[in-house]
Amino acid sequence: MFTGIVQGIATVEEITARPGLSTFAIRLPAKNTEGVTIGASVAINGTCLTVTRQEGDVLFFDAMQETLRLTTLGNLEAGNTVNFERAARIGDEIGGHLLSGHVHTTARLVEILRPENNVTLWFEVPEAWTRYIFPKGYIAINGASLTIGEVKGNRFNVHLIPETLRATTFGRATEGEWVNIEIDSQTQTIVDTLARLGYDRPAPTL
């Protein structure tokens, strides 16, 4: 499990693509690789991956074709930066909301607004997933736990303070890029339960 509090920005050093599998070599800040063990879980842009090897501050992860298809990891290139969070431990403070690291869908960043002292990002999601997106509700974008601002059709926004921009890749975001989305599990459970009782349409098909 993860908390949605991004621990920093990592850099993709190398990507090795093989039939049905891609291996990512990702460099984390030195302080964040202490105590890492093979088999440990790390969220990369919100996607839970398993450490398969370590060389100094570089961690290696394998991603299958299904993971590459459902997330933005397949679009990464050497030199790109990503958000990361190591798995939560018992006793850790939950500063965001609990995440599984299982990406539900992807969204496109369609507009960036820069009012004084903060940034507003507007995202567009596939229509079927809007059933889980509500104003003031939780959502995880590239692994960061955020509060939804406004919702208009299949678009929603989030408001980011300077600290969030500094600590995540959102400070470098550009219009048109794609991000990973994990819907809040409690919201999904409530909406799907109501749907089974006949109060809403069926859940989306992956």
Topology:
Blueprint: E1 8-18, E2 21-27, E3 41-44, E4 47-55, E5 58-64, H1 65-70, E6 81-86, E7 105-113, E8 119-124, E9 138-141, E10 144-152, E11 155-160, H2 162-167, E12 178-183, H3 185-196
Antiparallel strand pairs: 1-2, 1-6, 2-5, 3-4, 3-6, 4-5, 7-8, 7-12, 8-11, 9-10, 9-12, 10-11
**Mean pLDDT across every amino acid position:** 92
Shape: globular
How many structural domains are formed by the residues? 2
Low-confidence stretches: none
Bin the strand percentage.
35-45%
Distance between the ends: 22 Å
Distinct helical segment count: 3
If you compute it from the alpha carbons, what radius of gyration comes out, rounded to the nearest whole angstrom? 17 Å
Protein name: Riboflavin synthase
EC number: 2.5.1.9
Keywords: Repeat, Riboflavin biosynthesis, Transferase
Pathway: Cofactor biosynthesis; riboflavin biosynthesis; riboflavin from 2-hydroxy-3-oxobutyl phosphate and 5-amino-6-(D-ribitylamino)uracil: step 2/2
